[in-house]
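Figure 3 (text version): structure tokens given as input.
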């Protein structure tokens, strides 16, 4: 399940994508438009800045903007930045210890296929798609 953090990150990125190119958007403005607590949004934005997805400028006239074009961000990238792995089971997460039952697990093929479906789905949707209502 995608957490509130992931959903808010997507909404934040869409909000930035809807602004004119290069516009610095104050966090409070986005929080109001999106109906998100500014305090909570600060936590989400910190992850996006650390990942090099958005730029923040402090001070008067400051705010946030995308570092790339909206069509260059996938929903998967945003979700993985804020959620970590979207793997449905622990054994499919990056860096997971190898399960001793891996070679005999009858459910692993199902989980692997589901994981691929989820990742492919979110990889196929860009922030531009969402901002322009193409999903």
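Below: residues designed for each position.
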């Amino acid at each position: 399940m995608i957490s509130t953090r992931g959903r808010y990150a997507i909404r934040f990125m869409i909000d930035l994508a809807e602004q004119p190119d290069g516009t610095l958007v104050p966090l409070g403005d986005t929080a109001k438009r999106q109906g998100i607590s500014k305090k909570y949004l600060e936590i989400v934005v910190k992850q996006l800045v650390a990942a090099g997805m958005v730029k923040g400028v402090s001070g008067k006239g400051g705010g946030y903007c995308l570092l790339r074009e909206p069509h260059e961000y996938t929903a998967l990238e945003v979700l993985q930045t804020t959620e970590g792995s979207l793997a449905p089971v622990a054994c499919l997460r990056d860096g997971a210890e190898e399960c001793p039952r891996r070679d005999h697990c009858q459910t692993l093929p199902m989980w692997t296929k589901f994981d691929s479906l989820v990742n492919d789905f979110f990889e196929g949707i860009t922030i531009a798609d969402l901002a322009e209502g193409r999903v």
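The chain has six helices and two strands.
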